[in-house]
């Protein structure tokens, strides 16, 4: 997660501005739009999304239901082609027209609301699956799976099967699997949406720890404003129809944050302001 909290919308270009002037953003979106066309209707799900995310930054995306959060994440994940605009991962275009560059996609890690584990694979084999698919040898896969199981707090469960795990533990496996290839970018769509409130809090703490340890750059979609403010270096708010960025809020609480930060008046004020802004968007 970044030490600096820039809310620059465009890439830094001013020479001599500071170090960021020459730093290639980890992820850059330039005028990204997405239109869904069916025989009956056309939905402009996203419009003019411009955002630059730097190395190690944690960006939380919030917005009302239907404002395009999932569409944005799926577009970043290489699953949905944008109708307009450009997406660059470390300066390399993810899409050329409606064709995705699979070598760029292979540098992304994605976690959805459902862990989507293979029930007949052990925890270690689930974690190492992306490595198997790209042909890494068994010894490396084993070593990396055990290393990641430890990182996500699942040491001792490497040989267990998904059915033997709780929902929170399964999500940890999904996070470990997404990190297995050392992705440049971790994309998460409501990863804790199906968990109970206490487990979700614990997972927020864990995710912060994991992201710091892995120096991960993260785009994290959530409905939950408190979760977004707790986790984010910046909170990006989308407004609906079409989904546009309506606000980018830097969150500067020191890291690592613990749950007590949520009792700080400044934390409560930010959550209230963001909630108020979202309510105003009807
Ligand atoms: N495959 C699709 N075909 C047509 N329209 C779609 C498709 N996927 C999404 N949409 C439309 O695009 C808009 C944005 O949907 P999206 O799922 O991205 O919103 P969201 O913010 O993730 O919502 P939620 O918080 O409820 O999950 C909605 O109006 C939705 O109906």
Automatic annotation (TrEMBL):
<dbReference type="Pfam" id="PF00005">
    <property type="entry name" value="ABC_tran"/>
</dbReference>
<dbReference type="GO" id="GO:0005524">
    <property type="term" value="F:ATP binding"/>
</dbReference>
<keyword id="KW-0067">ATP-binding</keyword>
<dbReference type="InterPro" id="IPR003439">
    <property type="entry name" value="ABC_transporter-like_ATP-bd"/>
</dbReference>
<dbReference type="GO" id="GO:0016887">
    <property type="term" value="F:ATP hydrolysis activity"/>
</dbReference>
<protein>
    <submittedName>
        <fullName>NitT/TauT family transport system ATP-binding protein</fullName>
    </submittedName>
</protein>
<keyword id="KW-0813">Transport</keyword>
<dbReference type="InterPro" id="IPR027417">
    <property type="entry name" value="P-loop_NTPase"/>
</dbReference>
<dbReference type="InterPro" id="IPR003593">
    <property type="entry name" value="AAA+_ATPase"/>
</dbReference>
<dbReference type="InterPro" id="IPR050166">
    <property type="entry name" value="ABC_transporter_ATP-bind"/>
</dbReference>
<dbReference type="InterPro" id="IPR017871">
    <property type="entry name" value="ABC_transporter-like_CS"/>
</dbReference>
<keyword id="KW-0547">Nucleotide-binding</keyword>
């Amino acid at each position: 997660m970044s030490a600096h909290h820039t809310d620059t919308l465009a890439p830094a270009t001013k020479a001599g501005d500071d170090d960021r002037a020459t730093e290639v953003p980890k992820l850059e979106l330039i005028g990204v739009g997405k239109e869904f066309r069916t025989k009956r209707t056309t939905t402009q799900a996203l419009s003019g999304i411009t955002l630059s995310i730097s190395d190690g930054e944690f960006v939380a995306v919030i917005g009302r239901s239907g404002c395009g959060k999932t569409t944005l994440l799926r577009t970043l994940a290489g699953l949905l082609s944008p109708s307009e605009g450009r997406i660059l991962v470390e300066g390399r275009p993810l899409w050329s027209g409606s064709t995705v560059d699979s070598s760029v996609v292979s540098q992304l890690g994605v976690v959805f609301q459902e862990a989507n584990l293979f029930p007949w694979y052990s925890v270690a084999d689930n974690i190492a699956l992306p490595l198997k698919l790209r042909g890494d040898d068994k010894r490396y896969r084993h070593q990396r799976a055990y290393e990641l199981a430890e990182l996500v707090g699942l040491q001792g469960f490497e040989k267990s099967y998904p059915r033997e795990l709780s929902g929170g533990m399964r999500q940890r496996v999904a996070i470990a699997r997404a990190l297995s290839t050392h992705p440049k970018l971790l994309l998460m769509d409501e990863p804790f949406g199906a968990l109970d409130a206490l487990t979700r809090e614990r997972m927020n703490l864990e995710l912060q720890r994991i992201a710091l340890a892995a120096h991960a750059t993260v785009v994290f979609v959530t409905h939950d404003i408190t979760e977004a403010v707790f986790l984010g270096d910046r909170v990006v708010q989308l407004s609906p129809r079409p989904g546009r960025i309506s606000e980018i809020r830097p969150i500067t609480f020191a890291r690592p944050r613990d749950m007590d930060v949520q009792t700080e008046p400044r934390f409560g004020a930010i959550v209230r302001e963001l909630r108020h802004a979202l309510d105003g968007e009807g």
